[in-house]
Amino acid sequence: MNLAATEELARLGHLYPAVILHGRKAEDRQAAALRLARTLLCEAERSARPCGSCKHCSRIVWPSAKSDAFHADFRVLERDLKTSTSVAATKAFLQDAQVAPFEARGQVFVLASAESLTGEAANALLKTLEEPHISAPRHFLLLSPSQFDLLATVRSRSLAVFLGVSEAEFTEEMEGLAESFAVCVRGFMSSGSILQLLAGAEVLSRVSSWKDPRDATAWSQAAAIVRRCCDLVESRGSRGLLNLAEQMLGGWQSRVRGIQAQRILEAMVVEGLAPLAPKGETRDTRLVPSVNGG
Fold first, then answer.
1. Which fold is adopted by the domain 3-162?
2. Distance CA 59, CA 57 (A)
C-alpha cells in the first residue's frame, strides 16, 4: 500500500483504524502523518480533502513546530526516554482515546517513534487497538523506520504503508558501492555461494559511520544501496532486494542491543537473499551467525 492510495481510503472514510507509516526519514514520516490526519479530520468536501485551510487542517501541526496552533483531536506521543517510549507515557497518551472527539468528527493519535515502544507499552497499545471506538472514528498512526520493528501482533492489526527509501543522501560513493554490491548479488545468483553474500555485506559495511548504535543514518544509506541494486541485477532479484532494503531500515534496533553492525549485515543479507540461489543449489547458511544469538 502506498501513501496516495492510503489518502484515498482516508477521504472515503474507509481507512483502517491503525496505520504503520514506515520508511524514509523521520521528517518524511511526520509529514505523511500530518497529511493523513488533515485528510481524516478536514471539513471540506471529500474530493477536496485535505483542503489545508479549514479550521481543522490549519491547526493540525507537529508539536515541535514553531506554531501556537493546536487541535484537541490530534495527539502526538514522542519518545520520552533515551532509547524507548515508556509504558507510563503510552498509557497516559491512550487515555484520550477513551473519550469522544472534542470538535472534529474523529480523532487521530500519532506515535512518533513506535519502534521504541517497550513491550508493556506495545501491549497497552494493542489492547486499545482491539477496542474500537463506538461513537466516532479513531485512528492511530504508528511511525517507524521499518514495520518489522513493531510487535507481530501490532503489525497484524495495522495497515502498513511503506514510504520508500530516501534518495536525497545518495552520493557518488554510494553509487560505486551499489555497483560492487550488485556484482556480489549477481555472483550469488549464478553460483549459489554464500561467500558472495558475505562479500556483499562487507561492501555495505563501508557506508557512513557505524559508531553510534542509535544513529539510523548508516542503515538508511545501506538500504538505499540495496534498493539501487534492483536496477543493476536481473528482475527476479528485485523482490528480495526490496524486502532486504526495507528490513535494513530497522537494523539499528539490533545495534542498540549491542550486536556488531557487520554481524547484523551478514545475517540480513544472507537470510534475505538466500532464496535467489540457482535452483538445485544448497543454501547452507551455517557460516552466518544469527543476530538473535546475542
1. Rossmann fold (3.40.50)
2. 6
